[in-house]
Design a protein that fits this description.
The complex is a heterodimer of chains A (311) and B (153). With 311 residues, chain A is α/β, with parallel strands linked by helices. In chain A, 35% of the residues lie in helices and 14% in strands. Classes of the chains: A alpha/beta (311), B mainly beta (153).
C-alpha cells in the first residue's frame, strides 16, 4: 500500500485539496515541464473511457513522462480470466505509477492493497472518480474566485451520479448551500442528505427545474438522466425533458453563474446554451488536465510550487 | 445438582465452551462461522430450546475447545446477545458476551454484485459504522447493510 495513492476524494483532507488546487493553478500557468522525465506511468483502463484516459495521458506527456497501458480490457489477460490482483502485481514491476479505471466498485481500493506502487483511481464503477471532483472544484474556484459560501444547484440524476456525490462531499469544507433538482426516481439518496445534516450544510430539494432556482445559483451542475436508470419507462418518457437547460432559462441568472457538466452531455443542455457566457463545460474539461497533473505529481511524491489562491 | 441436570436438554460438558442464547435462525450460520464442522471433539448442537429471554434459542457445546476471543467475536454480527461459558471440570470458570469488532474480515458477503469482492478471489472487509443499529459498510464499494440483512458466506 502506498500512502500517496488517491482512491476517493474522502481520503484527502481540506489542506490537501487546497494544495492540489494551488498546484493545478501552477500547471495551468506552466503546463509543459520535464518533471516526469524518466518516469513510466501505466494507464490501465479495464473499462473504456476515452475522455478520462486522454486527459490523464496528456497530463503525463506534457510533464515529460512516458505512458504504457491499455484502453480496453478485452485485449488483455483479464479476458483470459487473470485476476485484477495479478494484473496489478505484474504491471507494478514496470512502472512508477498506476492510473486505473475499472467497471467494478472498490477495484482501485483493492489495487492499492496488493501493490506498493501508487495508484490513482480514474473511476471504479458508480463508486468514486476523485480526479473529476478535483477538476470540478478547480473549475468552481476559477469561475467564482472562491470556494466559500457558494450556492450550488445540482440537476438531473442525483441518485446514481457519482460526480455529484463526490462533489457534495468535497464541498463540505467550504460552507456551501445546495439545491437538488431531480424527479422522484432520481433524488439525492438519504445517506448524502444525512451527510449534509451532519456537516450543517444547507440543502433544498425541488422537483421542478425553474428559473427561480437558477437565479439564486452560483453554479449549475448538470448531469445526464439515463434511460437505463428507470424501472418504469413511462416515467422516463415523462421526465426526460423536464431537466433540460435551455438558454432562455438563463436570462435572470447571476452574472457569475456558470454551468458545469461532467460530459458527455446528450440532451440535458440544449445546444443554444453553448454560446451563452454562462456555459463553462468545455473549459471545465480542460481544467481536468491541470488538476490531473497536480494529482499525478502528488501520487509520485514530487514537490510542485503552489500558486497563491484565495479561497 | 443431579435434579438440575435431568432437566438439561443437552448433556453437560466436562471441559470446553458453551455458546448460549444463539437465535434459532442463525444457529447454523454460527456453527459455520466458528468452523465447528472441522472440530474433532464432541460437539452438541441444540436448537429451538426453550429460553426465558429469547422464548426459544439455539445452543452449541464444544468439548475440549476454548475459543479465542477474536474467533468467538466473529458471531457477534448475527448473535449479538450470545453468551459464552468456558467450562473446566463441570464448572463455569468464565462467562462473557460477544463484542462486535470494529472491522469484520471475511464472513459477510457484499450484496452489491458490482463490488470487486464478488468478482475477485479475495476476502471481504466491512467496518461497523453504527453499533446501535448494527450497520456495516463495505470497505471496498461503500455499500452499507444492516446486520440482519447481511449475507453470511
Amino acid at each position: 500500500m502506498n500512502s500517496n495513492s488517491l482512491v476517493s476524494i474522502d481520503d484527502i483532507s481540506r489542506d490537501e485539496i487546497v494544495d492540489l488546487l494551488k498546484q493545478a493553478r501552477y500547471f495551468e500557468m506552466h503546463p509543459d515541464q520535464k518533471i516526469l522525465d524518466g518516469k513510466v506511468v501505466a494507464t490501465l483502463f479495464f473499462e473504456p473511457s476515452t475522455r478520462t484516459r486522454l486527459s490523464f495521458e496528456t497530463a503525463v506527456n506534457r510533464l515529460g513522462g512516458r505512458v504504457i497501458g491499455f484502453s480496453d480490457a478485452s485485449t488483455t489477460s483479464s479476458s483470459k480470466g487473470e485476476t485484477l490482483k495479478d494484473t496489478i502485481k505484474m504491471v507494478s514491476n514496470y512502472v512508477d505509477l498506476i492510473i486505473m479505471r475499472h467497471h467494478l466498485e472498490g477495484a482501485a481500493r483493492y489495487a492499492t492493497e496488493v501493490t506498493d506502487t501508487p495508484v490513482i483511481n480514474a473511476g471504479d464503477g458508480a463508486h468514486q472518480h476523485p480526479s473529476q471532483t478535483m477538476l470540478d472544484l478547480y473549475s468552481i474556484y476559477k469561475t467564482q474566485g472562491t470556494l466559500q459560501n457558494l450556492s450550488i444547484t445540482m440537476v438531473g440524476d442525483l441518485k446514481y451520479g457519482r460526480t455529484v456525490h463526490s462533489l457534495l462531499m468535497a464541498m463540505r469544507y467550504f460552507n456551501p448551500t445546495f439545491h437538488f433538482i431531480a424527479c422522484e426516481e432520481l433524488q439525492m439518496p438519504k445517506e448524502y442528505k444525512d451527510f449534509c445534516d451532519k456537516y450543517n450544510i444547507r440543502y433544498y430539494e425541488h422537483r421542478d427545474f425553474t428559473p427561480e432556482v437558477i437565479n439564486q445559483s452560483d453554479i449549475l451542475y448538470m448531469t445526464r438522466v439515463q434511460r437505463e436508470r428507470f424501472t418504469d419507462i413511462m416515467e422516463y418518457e415523462r421526465v426526460k425533458n423536464l431537466y433540460t437547460l435551455r438558454s432562455d432559462m438563463l436570462e435572470g441568472a447571476r452574472k457569475n453563474m456558470r454551468v458545469l457538466h461532467p460530459l458527455p452531455r446528450v440532451n440535458e443542455i440544449a445546444y443554444d446554451v453553448d454560446d451563452s457566457p454562462h456555459a463553462y463545460y468545455f473549459e471545465q474539461a480542460r481544467n481536468g488536465l491541470y488538476a490531473r497533473q497536480a494529482i499525478i505529481c502528488k501520487a509520485l511524491g514530487i514537490d510542485i510550487p503552489k500558486m497563491e489562491i484565495t479561497l | 445438582m443431579k435434579a438440575d441436570k435431568k432437566e438439561l436438554a443437552v448433556a453437560a460438558l466436562r471441559c470446553g465452551t458453551v455458546i448460549d442464547h444463539v437465535p434459532n435462525d442463525v444457529l447454523f450460520k454460527a456453527v459455520k462461522i466458528l468452523g465447528i464442522e472441522n472440530i474433532k471433539s464432541h460437539v452438541t448442537i441444540g436448537n429451538n430450546l426453550s429460553s426465558k429471554r429469547l422464548g426459544s434459542k439455539g445452543i452449541i457445546k464444544v468439548a475440549d475447545v476454548e475459543f479465542a476471543e477474536d474467533v468467538i467475536n466473529r458471531i457477534a454480527l448475527i448473535a449479538p446477545h450470545a453468551k459464552i461459558n468456558i467450562i473446566r471440570d463441570f464448572d463455569v470458570v468464565e462467562k462473557r458476551y460477544v463484542t462486535l469488532p470494529d472491522e469484520i474480515v471475511g464472513i459477510v458477503r457484499c450484496d452489491n454484485p458490482k463490488c470487486i469482492t464478488n468478482n475477485e478471489p479475495m476476502r471481504t472487509r466491512f467496518s461497523v459504522i453504527d453499533r446501535d443499529n448494527l450497520t456495516i459498510r463495505c470497505h471496498y464499494c461503500g455499500r452499507t447493510v444492516k446486520s440482519e440483512d447481511a449475507i453470511i458466506d
